[in-house]
Here is the input.
Amino acid sequence: MAGLLALHARQATSAGRLEKWGFRVAFAGCVMGFLGSIGAYWIGSVWWGAVNVSFLAFMVPALLLFGTGFPLFGIGALRAKVAPRPGAWLLVVGGLPGMVLLVIALGQITLALLPINVAWVILGHALFAEASAPEKRPAHAG
Here is the structure.
C-alpha cells in the first residue's frame, strides 16, 4: 500500500486517466486486503468461522480489485515512463488472467500473486534507491 502511494505520487504529474483509475482500484484492493488480513488473523484466532467470513467478504473482492487495478496501474506507469519497466510489466502480466493461469498451473492461490509481489520488489527498490540517493547540489562559484 505504501509503495502504491509512493509510486503514484512520483508519477502523478505525468500519469494519465488510466493510471489514476488503476491506482484507485488497486488502492481499494489494498484496503480490502488489509481488512481481510486483520479479520482472518485477529478475529480468526478467537473465532475460527471468522476466517471464512473474512476471506469471502474482503479477500475475494481484494483479489478481483488487484487483478484489475494493478494491470491498469502498470500500463499507466509504462506510459508515464517513471517506474522501472520490468516492474510495470510484471504488474500488467500479473493481473487477473495471469492470476487465473498461475492458479491453474501451480494449484495455489498465494503463488498466483507472485508476479505482482516481484513487481513490487522491483518498484520498491527503485523508490528506495531514489529516496536514499544523495541530493545533487550546484557547485558554488568562489
Q: What stands out?
A: The mean pLDDT is 84. The chain is about 80% helix and 0% strand. The chain has one domain: 2-129.
